[in-house]
Amino acid sequence: MTAPRRGSRWPGPHPAAARDDHPEGARSGGLPGGPTASGRDPLLRMIVLARPRGARFALGVLAGAVATASAVALLATAAWLISTAAAQPPITALSVAVVATRALGVTRGTARYLERLITHDAALRTLSDVRVRVYERLARTEPVRRFRSGDLVTRLVGDTDATQDLLIRGLTPPAAALVTGAGVVGLSTAVLVPGGALLAAGLLLGGVAVPLLAAAAGRGPGRRAAAARAELSTALVDALHGAPDLHAHGAMPAAVARVEAADAALTRTARRDATLLGLGAGASALVAGLTVWGTLLLGVAAVDDLGTVGLAVLVLTALAAFEIVAPLPAVAARLGGLRAAGARLFDVLDAPPAVTRRPAAPVRDEPGLRIRDLRVRYGPDEPWVLDGLDLDLPPGRRIAVVGPSGVGKSTLAAVLFRFRDPDAGTVHLDGVDVTTQDPDDVRRVIGGVPADPHVFDATVRANLLLARPGATDAELSAVLDRVRLTAPLAPAGGLDAETGPHGDRLSGGMRTRLALARALLADPRVLVLDEPTAHLDPETRDAVLADVLAATRGRTLVLVTHDPAGLDALDEVVELSSARRTPAAR
Questions:
Q1: pTM for the full model?
Q2: Strand 424-429 vs strand 369-376: parallel, antiparallel, or unpaired?
Q3: Left (φ > 0), alpha (ψ -120 to 50) or beta: where does 7 sit?
Q4: What are the residues facing 528 on neighbouring strands?
Q5: How far apart are CA 100 and CA 107, in angstroms?
Q6: What integer pLDDT is reported at residue 114 of this predicted model?
Q7: What's the distance, CA 543 to chain centroid?
Q8: How far lies 111's CA from each of 70, 98, 106, 168, 290, in Å?
Q9: Helix extents (H) in 139-209
Q10: Which residue has the higher pLDDT, 509 or 447?
Q11: What is the predicted pLDDT for the residue at 22?
Q12: Mean of the pLDDT values across residues 40-57?
């Protein structure tokens, strides 16, 4: 994020000239090439995600069909070769079959390798696209707050990986089985019509009926497994991240018990899944055995017409044919879990944005920040948090917004940061309605420190460079001096100090000051600070506030605080609790 030039109104072209043919709400929704409407089967939607690589998957299915057909043909040729060789014909009569056997063995291995290579490559590329789009959706800021951290990790990893599993195991084997099965049934029918009909019935039972039953039986366990994985991840992350507070309040045993209960639930679901897989494999083997025995009986009855060679080819072809449908029951049993994972994935991708880009509105000749009749609430039946707020901030004006907790101070900051839309009223900056602009463009002009600033697990330098990637170490050190953070960071390495996950290696006051330094480095024209001196002792608070006021001279400043101390240097104090505005003492 780069800072706008001092004195500039908006980065890039003036907002009046901005195009509005791609509203933010439309951009943030689904995936290109994939459905965005809810209500469609998640499995179909996950398959649609692979449409850009449909040709690759078709090639992979063809390679899989060749590999399976080669396996069946290899056994059929071997049956012909062995049964023919028993009659001791001239060796030249067997040479073609010998060469074919070798060729089919090589073809089977090569085709199987190509199938794995092509389908995995296409699936991994599709998975990469999906993962990028998930991150892009979450990077819009607001959806992250709708999911608990552990559950979000599961959605980002396990549920997203379900796309790969579906494409590799749920799409390619059935398609290859359909192509190969038709050819094998045709071959058996050419040898013996009743044998071909019996084999077709057996393949339909083993490749359609048994998988359908497995899919129906696996729907519930799959859904429960997805929920159990999410619960285990959430419980574990909560226990790890909250360990200090849990220990301090004696709640760690309860947190550990929750993790153990979630793990036990997932284990029970996994056992049911394993039982289901075993039953599916057993049913498939039973169908295969009965079909082979039936084919053998039919062949024996027609041996006078078939001959011994034809009988051997017919029976062993039927035996080999069930390699085609062998993977399908296991695939079908997992469809319930894949469907549940897909639904959770699309919960993220379909999450409606908290902020939308509204149609363009006329630009007024009103410099500065102007808020009129601002009304915000958090639900249709909830009370208004902000109800008719009016506020004028000419360029360079610095105000404080004070009041007790719950009166809407942080809500006002969230509206200015474009973290949420107003339910009514307008916010204009230099005469431009901010809701008609791209939220990122607004945040380059209106920036600062939100109520819960995030500190990344990196060095202090890396956290600061997010605000201005081209900043020098001298500039970074100078901004740390402004927020009185140089001395506290010196023992840990200064700019090279590691912040830890969520900034855990820093105290609460140091995290706030680091976020404040990042905001000052970004240098927005309108600076919004939501409780920037929280967790600071009075002496440090007054010094930091004085430095911030000195560093932002000439910039519009909105200071959100519940602490009225040290506000004498500001131009105005807005008391939200009574909607009164009183000039600050000068």
A1: 0.67
A2: antiparallel
A3: left
A4: 448, 558
A5: 10
A6: 92
A7: 43
A8: 9, 20, 8, 15, 30
A9: 149-154, 160-165, 172-191, 193-204
A10: 447
A11: 36
A12: 85
